[in-house]
Amino acid sequence: MPPLITQHGDVVAFEMPEMAPNFITQKAVVAELISDLGEGANLAGKIVLIPSADPGFDWIFTKNISGFVTTYGGANSHMAIRANELGLPAVIGVGEAEYNRLRSAKLLEIDCSNNHVRILQ
Fold first, then answer.
1. Which of 6, 67, 87, 104 sits between 20 and 30 A of 113, alpha carbons compared?
2. Catalytic one among 78, 81, 95, 111?
């Protein structure tokens, strides 16, 4: 369902609004993207793609990651605050459509000072 139902037709068909993600820090990074966080995954030096910005993903900070992107979350979310504390480039709350597009990437650029995420490969 859409985030807000304002008319009868919203129940039958709707469009997901474009999200405005939050860019944390003013840093830029280019690194391999990883979304499979299964046991034994090597996250060191990679940009990690995670679904939400909640404390359940705090463990990624112990893996020497280069940055991360989340589907949901805001500038005041737990992961945004942690990224800022650690000086780690992050994009919080890209939305479902962008998250799904990014999942196919192998190499990603995050440029927080210019509010930009780009698939390089």
1. 104
2. 78
